[in-house]
Amino acid sequence: MGKLFLLFLLLWPRSLPENTRTLVVSPTGSLTTIEEAIAIARSGDTIEVHGGVYAAPLLIDKSVILIGVDHPVIDGGNEGSLVVITAPDVVLKGFTLRNSGSTIHHEDTGIIVQSPHVTLEDNVLENVLFGIYFANAPDGIARRNTIQGLNRDESSRGDGIRLWYSDNIQIIENVITTSRDMLVSYSNNLKIEGNTFHHNRYGLHFMYSNNVSIRHNTIENNSVGAFLMYSQHIVLEDNRFSHNRGSSGYGLALKDMDGVTVNGNVFVGNQVGLYLDNSPSLYEGYNTYRGNIFAYNDVGVVTLPSVERNVFQKNNFLHNLEHVGIWGREIENRNIWFQDGVGNYWNDYVGYDQDGDNIGDTPYRADRLFESLTDRYPVLKLFEYSPATQAIEFTASAFPVLRPIPKVEDNAPLMTLSIPASLKQSETSVSLPFLALSFLLILLALGVVGAAGIDWQFTKASLRGNSMIVVNNLVKKYGQFNALAGMSFTVQPGESVALWGINGAGKTSTLRCLMGILSFEGSITINGIDVARNGKTARAAIGYIPQEAAFPDLSVKEALHFYARLKKVSSKELPVVLEKVGLTEQTYKPVWALSGGMKQRLALAIALLGNPPILLLDEATANLDTQARHDFLNLVVSLNRAGKTIVFSTHRVDEVMALAQRVLVLKDGQVSVECSPGELVDKLGLQRWLRIWVEPDHQSEAVHLLQQHGFTPVMNTRAFYVNVGTTGKMAPLRILQAAQITVNDFDVVESKDDGLH
Amino acid sequence: MDFTNIWTVTHKELRDALRNRWFLLYTLIFGGLALALSMTAQPDIAFTKLAGYDRTVTSLVNLVLLFVPLMGLMFGATSLASDQETGVLNTLLAQPITRTEILLGKYFGVATALLSSLIMGFGLAGFALALDGGGRVKGYAVMIVFACLLGLAMLSVGFLISTISQKTSTAVGGALFLWLFFVLVGDLGLIGASIVMELPLETTLLIALISPLQEFKMASISTTQASLDALGPAGLYADDTFGGLFLPLLLASLLLWIFVPLGAAQLVFAQRK
After folding, report:
1. C-alpha dihedral over B4, B8, B14, B19, to 10 degrees?
2. What 8-state DSSP symbol labels residue A213?
3. Is B24 an 8 Å CB contact of chain A?
4. Distance from the CA of A739 to the CA of which of A170, A213, A750, B231 falls in 20 to 30 A?
5. Per-residue pLDDT for A508 more than 80?
């Protein structure tokens, strides 16, 4: 075909021009408009148009060669078409054409070609509705032109290039952008090579055009890369279809296409790399796809269910979310995925190649369940990237019955990838913005870690002076249950008051209300502060020691420091408080390593921070052993002597005796009795036993004597027990002394069954 | 409201968290996986000209979807419940501090720790991405912001669980259940419902958008890949319907997910009084 064309050119009489001239047009020359030059030009003349702005529309109705020197501009002032060529053999080269009209139904165009053998070269078309329009204009060439359409809604743009009944056109190395389509209809024997189509609606849009070579084009960021329909014998080679993602988002789409060869193209980042609809359409036809790369597309290849007889061989399928999809009802894919023992490369193929022939020993099957679900229900793509989709795949692989029919069965999958050298990147460049961001992030994270160690000093808050507790008609309900039912009492400064009662009598609730950490009815005043209204300030006057103090996982010093800051106490006070409770040596120990007694002392230390006038103890010694309890009580007694007001709850008589000056006996959420510690023992019928050791010879005499004085001694091996109430401990000893019976030893116990107390 | 009190508790919580082995473990796993994903996803193809960046970022999205909710829910759930159980809370409440201050202080502390853990992971991954040529920095930054918001939202939910639970074990159980629900059960249920009940596209999208995980996912996809078309027709519908408002809407919705559960947690915690 090409040779015939050349012969044709050689025999054509115009190839022997005679007496051709060169006319010069410039704003300052003798010819100031192009129209004037054309008017006087003869066929074959050259018109040099120098820099300047010339008015459109320009009609070229003679076979002249128009050469732009220094970028002459033809400006349409946003009206109508710019250049119309009606003569054959015209060359238009080196012009800038801009600002056509923008009315779609007028088809306002940059260059309209209506005659054969027209060459358009190195022109720049800006802000034009349609770019170049070959209408019944065969044998034309558009080379190295740049066409930039009107940047408006895709469907209301014009076509960048349009071919209409124009055969043998060559579209070479043009750049077409922000247009609707390059639209080709009823035009055969075309060569479309080395062009770049970007940010158009359709890069290429074909119908009824046969024998087309599409090579080395870059088609990217369009809604659809190329949509080819109703045509035959198309070769697509070494093109790059990338990131075409619009409402359809195909890289290359073929509808009713026959005799198509697609070799060595790259399909990357499209919604669908290759879309096949009824192609091939002829029963005996095959389309072939070899050595292409389908990478990072949402779906590599999509076919409609009826599509068959497409041969895929030596293609590389890489990291598509879905390599092959069948849209519509699920059906076995009847395309050919291997031929002559050679298939395709699939990056998710996990087979093995024992004989080293680069062909996997087991077939590759695309049978992912979620894929087949999204093929049938596209809306489910919404869940792409969600862990739920992996769960679905996992389930399907665990229960093969759920697995769909494989969409692809490639019995000879390739083991290695074959990528053209042009695509290999010899070196990767470091992304500086990314590096900067990463540095920033890591610095930020490290900064937080660092800041966590910084110590901030806070000033100590001043405390108010009055240290008195007034509780009036205190009621606390937990649902229907009345934990406290109208309790009233007062505590004087420096006083030590015990709250006595069985479990559930309301001791802990009372203490928590005093601190204002439970809501309540009635009123409580602490140190002159209304607890209900300002619990937080009231708590500044209170040190609280719970039954079993718990601390965050810190060292003694850190724990103390933490609470010191909450209480706005200077850290200088910490060593003083630690010394006061005898924990100086434990300063740097972790809290969890302390014994129970030490933990309670730490709780006391925390309570003492800020020197609060009131200490509240909630069965603070209940979990301590005898020695620790003794030491702890001594500490609290000394604090009380030093002027602290103390309210504590307990069930232990010895604690009451040792620490309390007054006892409030709680029953059913009220103060049932208020008394002294001694009276408590009596009122409760609590008894003391004197255990007395005398010489064995005097034992029976002593017992008899005591019985005479109204006691009821009980013998127990070497000692005897005498019930002495709470106040008459000396009486039995005096009686024995008067009778000159030597008392070797004695002690006081709470029960005659008790051991030493 | 006493900000020095809040700060004191925040500071203590932060130190606690940074010393907590679980926390370090989560940070290491998250950072390690993010780094590994970024390093392995790229050189797999010797030709980064084909831009594997998008795919790497989406695998990071997947990692965030699995991991960040787990971190947020667990840290949140254990925060107050364990203090309640061990009695630390009792001692703390006895100090001159309000419940609100305690809750906020704890939230800020754990949140700071969580966020620093996340940005450390993203920072490491970012290095690997940078050395391989990188991609859209802005998209990556937006993804990080949304991942952090997702973490905070899950932390708030965790705090709510924590205030409701009396025991740490109950709180952890609740957190794991919710994690499973957010990550798997919810989506699976919606997938099932969408198929069986033939839900219209808008309904499926709107229901999906209730989930903070989906909100994060869509925000990340729409910024790292410039459009939501990777999510099929529902993604395109979202793009068309909301357009430029989509991201602000997702942002607002995630903020709701942060503030509403935290507010509820505050109410419950105050009611405990």
Report:
1. 160
2. E
3. no
4. A750
5. yes
Residue listed under structure tokens 């859209």: B136
Scanning the structure block, which residue is given the tokens 């703390």?
B92
Verify whether the Cβ–Cβ distance A385 to B91 is below 8 Å: no
What is the mean pLDDT of the segment spanning A37-52?
92
- Going by the DSSP 8-state scheme, the letter that residue A138 receives in this structure is T
- The neighbouring-strand residues paired with A34 are none
Q: Do A442 and B120 touch (CB under 8 A)?
A: yes
Let me know: does B9 contact B105? Beta carbons within 8 Å: yes
CA dihedral B209, B214, B215, B217 (to 10 degrees): -150
pLDDT digits (tens, 9 = 90+) for A411-459: 999 998 877 666 665 556 677 887 888 888 888 888 887 776 644 332 2
What would the pLDDT profile of A612-656 be if each residue is shown by its tens digit? 889 999 888 887 788 888 888 888 888 888 888 999 998 787 788
- Both tokens of A231, joined, read 């045509």
Q: For residue range B19-67, list pLDDT tens digits in order.
A: 777 788 888 888 888 888 777 655 444 444 455 566 677 788 888 999 9
Instruction: Tell me the backbone φ, ψ of residue B21, rounded to 5 degrees.
Output: -65, -35
The alpha carbon dihedral of A442, A444, A448, A451 has a sign of positive
Q: State the residue for tokens 């130190």.
A: B15
DSSP-based three-state secondary structure for A229? strand
Q: What is the pLDDT of residue A424?
A: 62
Inspect the interface and report whether the beta carbons of A384 and B231 lie closer than 8 Å.
yes
Sign of CA dihedral B193, B199, B201, B204: negative
Pick A163 or A755 by higher pLDDT.
Answer: A163
Output the CA torsion A518→A519→A524→A528 (10° steps).
80
Nearest to B18 among A247, A452, A552 (CB): A452
Between chain A and chain B, the number of residue pairs with CB atoms below 8 A apart is 258
- Structure tokens belonging to residue B40: 């392995």
Q: Which residues of B173-185 are buried (b: 16+ CB within 10 A; e: fewer)?
A: ebbeebbeebbbe
**Position A684, amino acid:** L
Strand bridging mode A614-618 / A689-694: unpaired
CA-based nearest residue in chain B for residue A600: B91
Greatest CA span in chain B, whole angstroms?
A: 64
Query: Is there a contact between B91 and A379 if contact means CB atoms under 8 Å apart?
Result: no
The predicted-structure confidence for B190-227, as pLDDT tens digits, reads as follows 888 888 888 888 888 888 889 999 999 988 888 877 66
User: Alpha-carbon distance A358 to A416, whole Å?
Assistant: 7
Reported residue count of chain B is 273
Half-sphere exposure of B123 toward its Cβ, with a 13 Å CA cutoff?
18
Give chain A's mean pLDDT. Answer: 85
Nearest CA in chain B to A420: B47
For residue B134, the chain A residues in CB contact (below 8 A) are 430-431, 433-435
ipTM > 0.90, yes or no: no
**Residue B236 and residue A266: Cβ atoms within 8 Å?**
no
Question: A165 CA to chain B: closest CA distance, Å?
Answer: 36
Q: Alpha helix locations (H) across A421-494?
A: 432-451
DSSP A433: H
> A568-601 pLDDT, tens per residue?
888 888 888 888 888 888 888 888 888 888 888 8
Task: Please state, in angstroms and as integers, the Cα–Cα distance from residue B98 to each residue in A41, A509, A538, following that order.
Answer: 96, 18, 11
B86 touches chain A (CB under 8 A): yes
Q: Which of A268, A449, A606 sits opposite B50 (nearest CB)?
A: A268
Angle at CA of residue A41, ends A37 and A45, nearest 5°: 110
Closest CA to A268 of A293, A245, A246, A288: A293
* Concatenated DSSP letters of A263-318: ES-EEES-SEEEEEES-S-STT--EEEES-EEES-SEEEEE-TT-EEEEEES-EEE
Please give the pLDDT value at position B43.
45
Please tell me which residue of chain B has the smallest CA distance to A551.
B88
